[in-house]
Design brief:
single chain; mainly alpha; 4 helices; flat
């Protein structure tokens, strides 16, 4: 059985979830992980970003929907 391909930015998204869990869901403790995911999303081309479940336009820019 083959391994599942890791989507671009998936590791960064998972790091946020782990950080939140490890820090009693205190968002302030995980800002570095959030920035890493934002940077990852910004580095994807437009087509890859559109298909990536870990990246949304509002997340990348820090805007609230």
């Amino acid at each position: 059985m083959g391994r599942r391909a890791v989507a671009p930015c998936e590791k960064a998204a998972c790091a946020i979830q782990k950080c939140l869990k490890d820090n009693s869901f205190q968002e302030e403790a995980c800002l570095q992980e959030v920035r890493r995911l934002q940077d990852c999303c910004k580095n994807l081309n437009e087509a890859a970003r559109a298909e990536n479940v870990h990246c949304s336009i509002s997340f990348e820019t820090g805007r609230k929907k």
